[in-house]
Automatic annotation (TrEMBL):
The name this protein goes by in its record: Beta-xylanase
Sequence ranges assigned to domain GH10 in this UniProt record: 1-347
Active site as annotated: 244
Organism listed in the record: Paenibacillus septentrionalis
Similarity section: Belongs to the glycosyl hydrolase 10 (cellulase F) family.
Domain of life: Bacteria
Length: 348
């Protein structure tokens, strides 16, 4: 009988998994319910899933996931209220599906649409969803101002970010609100994100933490870079969550393994171990920080670590970067524990 991951990490952070309704029954759901105490919808709660058209509001799949969280006493991370991909493009378009020009009238229209949508969704899941990825992937470190060149940005500037946080907070003042992004370990991206988060907070915008997606691979980025980013946000008083962790077995697009060499899986196991050891260490730093500083947090620096899946039969990384199977999660396709699972066990 395997030890439960959520029990092993109970003193540190919640252990979450991205799911869809088809992962909530059968053998994989036994793994989910045993090892995880938090869930997030891999796709079902994205604006493009809930509201693909102006008159559409589809929450059947979202509700199946939310109900599972309630029934199994798991926290629910809501992903996401706004993203440039898989979005409600109608909010940014005219009735003919053309993207709106950046006029003051259109900006006001987009503001109303966004606020109405967020108010409706957050009211719907009030008392059920604990955390929200309010905006996802708004940073682009390749641009001079660090802001992604999305239609949200073109039509509203950076105001859409503030509107999203304010509407979410107004609908549920207890919800914990996050800005979520990938490659947050990159110093340039981290610093753009940090400047945005701190200036929002200085303006009085209700932003509580940073979601670090953490789609990494067996050799990079370094644990130290990941750690330095979390530390920077934590010392400024932001909560941190690892929101989409997976560890690809591939380090370049050309490679493909079939079968996967044992040494690769072993390397992955060590990677999970080193990462989780560092996450535990960071979490503890918040508890032992000087209470007169913003770094001090009796709950620790990291409140939730969510994996982007449960077992290797269900990962978005299959066939990304080539025709190949990936294996980025702690359980294999037969739902057996991998070295990655044992790395998580040994880290704590
Ligand atoms: C991915 C899902 O896993 C896929 O099923 C879907 O086809 C595309 O989106 N960053 C995010 C997630 O914030 O929403 C993405 O999820 C993965 C990258």
């Amino acid at each position: 009988e395997l030890e439960s991951l959520k029990d092993l990490y109970a003193d540190y952070f919640e252990i979450g998994a991205a799911v869809e309704p088809n992962r909530l029954t059968g053998r994989v759901s036994e793994l989910l319910n045993k090892h995880f105490n938090s869930i997030v919808a891999e796709n079902s709660m994205k604006p493009g899933s809930i509201s693909p058209r102006e008159d559409a509001y589809n929450i059947t799949n979202a509700n199946i996931i939310a109900q599972h969280a309630v029934d199994q006493d798991m926290t629910l991370r809501f992903h996401t209220l706004l993203w440039h991909s898989q979005g409600s493009d109608w909010m940014l378009q005219d009735a003919n599906g053309n993207w709106l020009d950046a006029t003051p009238e259109n900006k006001a229209l987009v503001e109303t649409r966004l606020k109405n949508y967020i108010t409706r969704v957050v009211t719907q899941y009030k008392g059920i969803a604990t955390y929200y990825d309010v905006v996802n992937e708004v940073i682009d470190e390749g641009r001079p101002d660090g802001m992604r060149d999305s239609y949200w940005y073109r039509i509203t500037g950076t105001d859409f970010i503030k509107w999203a946080f304010e509407a979410a907070h107004a609908a549920d003042p207890d919800a914990k609100l996050y800005i979520n992004d990938y490659n947050t370990h990159s110093p340039r991206k981290r610093d753009f994100l940090f400047d945005l988060a701190t200036s929002l907070r200085d303006e009085g915008v209700p932003i509580h933490g940073v979601g670090h997606q953490t789609h990494i691979n067996i050799s990079g980025p370094s644990i130290q870079q990941i750690s330095e980013s979390i530390q920077k946000f934590a010392e400024a008083g932001f909560d941190n969550q690892i929101t989409e962790l997976d560890v690809s077995i591939y380090t370049t697009s050309g490679t493909s393994y079939d079968p996967i060499p044992e040494e690769i899986l072993l390397q992955q196991g060590y990677r999970f171990k080193e990462l989780f050891k560092e996450l535990v260490r960071l979490d503890e730093m918040g508890k032992h920080a000087d209470p007169s500083t913003p770094a001090y947090n009796p709950e620790g620096w990291i409140s939730n670590v969510t994996l982007w899946g449960i077992a290797d039969d269900g990962t978005w990384l299959h066939n990304r970067g080539g025709t190949r199977q990936d294996a980025p999660l702690p359980f294999d396709k037969q739902y057996q524990a991998k070295y990655a699972y044992w790395g998580m066990v040994e880290a704590v």
